[in-house]
Amino acid sequence: MAVKEIKHPLVQHKLGLMREQGISSKNFRALASEIGSLLTYEATRDLESESVEITGWQDTPITIQQLKGKKITIVPILRAGLGMLDGVMQLIPSARVSVVGLYRNEESLQPVAYFDKVVKDVEDRTALIVDPMLATGGTLIATIDLLKQKGCKHIMGLFLVAAPEGIEAVTTAHPDVDIYTASIDEKLNDQGYILPGLGDAGDKLFGTR
Ligand SMILES: O=P(O)(O)OC[C@H]1O[C@H](OP(=O)(O)OP(=O)(O)O)[C@H](O)[C@@H]1O
Ligand SMILES: O=c1cc[nH]c(=O)[nH]1
Ligand SMILES: [Mg+2]
Question: How far is the CA of 73 from the centre of ligand 2 (A)?
């Protein structure tokens, strides 16, 4: 498993703004989407392309590069993953979307699954999971379990902030999955929140705090 922390100045600037106490939902949503785009740009850097011949504007054959092989399905994890979806889709507008719903029980911190609608041909696609927070890793592990049960073979994940504890858990359970994050933060607190983190990303995105 590769874990890539994206140190690009635009990513770091935008993430810094998201950490400010009292940020409005409007600004939090805009920044989550923008970082979603930037992480997508990095995560798709190594996608394979191939040469294809087409007819150019002078009515002569020319060779262009096209993405090769497997197509992508974006997998936002409800609710908070929806906050990054627009930004990801701006770069991959034709991707199919597979929505999964899980929330974390606030006491046990265990993931509770309540919805999934995954594309039928997921075994032929790369799954690009999107969720702002990778905390204990329970939600991500459960999502990867579900995608693999449905036959998915190639999985990547995009996260605004990840905790070392969660990365360790996911690396152990699913060593084949690639993680892209804007920041590997310090640690989890006793309630399973990431420090310094963003607070409750879902509540901030949807104004339910
Ligand atoms: O790594 P974990 O410890 O499993 O925690 C991470 C999960 O917690 C948050 O969702 P939450 O349960 O708050 O649901 P929400 O998106 O509906 O707010 C977050 O968006 C992740 O899905
Ligand atoms: O810090 C955290 C951890 C889990 N979920 C969040 O929204 N924030
Ligand atoms: Mg939440």
Answer: 24
